[in-house]
Amino acid sequence: MIVPEASPPRTGLASRTAAWGRALPYHWAVKKIVILGTGGNCIDILDTLNDINQIRPEYQCVGFLDDTQANWGKDLHGVKVLGPLDSAAKYNDCLFVNGIGSPGNFWKKDAIICKTGVPDSRFATIVHPTASVSKMATLGAGVVVFQNATITSNVRLGKHVIVLPNTVVSHDDVIGDYTCITGGVCISGGVTIGNSCYIGTNSAINANIAIGDYCLVGMGSVVLKSVPENSVVVGAPARFIRHTRS
Predict the structure, then answer these.
(1) Which residue in 33, 159, 204, 212 has its CB near the most CB atoms, within 10 A?
(2) Confidence (pTM)
């Protein structure tokens, strides 16, 4: 998607956030939104919201929620950290989007989101303007798709799935709830990936295989055959090294 020339210039993230906050006309149906977490993916979500707003003002990010007390009150690129995750109920006029999830806690992502008490119906699905998403694909509540990702025909992304930049999710793939597909991943057609998985950067997954729930695929791995649930696999070809959870 090409950003129209009439859009505001792409400047620093903080200045763009502040500029849209001042410039949104009262009559626009702009949606308030809160980002869960303050890590790198969370800042990238803020950047994505601002890029969406460059085309047409849609979102006003009112703040971040994070359980790290030292972050409360901080200003991140013009947006405040408001408090802990369990304070989400205060923001009953807002939508939410989750950016929490790393190799160290991906299998806990459902519990982290559940802690907020926010129903799935109040989670926004966010797609960067440069992403290519087939009209035949289905995206669940709370899905985030970053820059230059490609989601092709008949793909199904479960709720709270995050797809990082330059990833390809091919035809007929099914990605389970809470799974993170990191940058530069290539998933061939007909693949099923379970719930709460983490697919590492630049990994490749062969066609028509299945990866079970709670699996981690290491960076740069080449997965040629199906992977049982609760497995960590690495290498080319990928091999089992340990269980995800004891």
Answers:
(1) 33
(2) 0.88
